[in-house]
Amino acid sequence: MPLTNTSLWSVSMSNKEMRPKEEWVVVKHFKLFNKVLNFSAERYFKTAGDLFIYEGDYEMALDMINKTLELEPDNTRALVLKGDILFCLNQDLEALTVLNKAIALDEKCAEGYISKAGVLDVLGKPREALQCCNRAMEFITRQNDYLLPTLIDQKLVLLVRLKKYREAQHLLNSATELLNPEDYNFLSSCYRPLLDRGFRHRGNVDDKARKLSLKIINGATGTP
Q: How far is CA 195 from CA 76, 165, 181, 199, in A?
């Protein structure tokens, strides 16, 4: 049976007969063992990412990420990646459970909120998905601002779906200061026409509603 972190530490701490030199050697190997575990976990994580992103082999990617989590159960990056893989395998509820765990471990995990928003949207919960996007925006820093194009795109989709056109327009306008010109121009070309049509449709609906209200009022007062 291989030694685990716990068993190695127990050997070094509980053996009262151990001489100082022997104890130092055991502790040294304990630290080395941890490094090996971390290296292996990172290797499995990278392999899972390559399989998922570049090869589209979700089953093998899931197997690799599970190996990562066997070594590091609280690795939030690995949990988010597992959630994304499960989502692509159409295991939406399982993905949601894993992503909730990642967020519980790190409440500032912007990636976790972004992935959770995607799952909630597919599950027919756009308002909850939008809340996740808003949470993710709170935790964007210089270190993870590469997430902004995806996050803003995702939030715009939800706002349009919820017919919150004015809020979507405000977000798109503010994106000029958050994104590089290439990313902004791409999103603008996608959403400006949608927003214009949304505003026109909303205007027509409002106009019909006003006319109907006028008829009702006139009918009630006997005004021709």
A: 36, 6, 20, 6
Distance of CA 82 to CAs 116, 147, 154, 172, 184, Å? 12, 18, 20, 31, 30
Per-residue pLDDT of the chain (224 residues; tens, 9 = 90+): 344 444 333 334 444 444 444 444 444 334 444 444 577 899 999 999 999 999 999 999 999 999 999 999 999 999 999 999 999 999 999 999 999 999 999 999 999 999 999 999 999 999 999 999 999 999 999 999 999 999 999 999 999 999 999 999 999 999 999 999 999 999 999 999 989 887 775 544 444 445 445 445 555 555 55
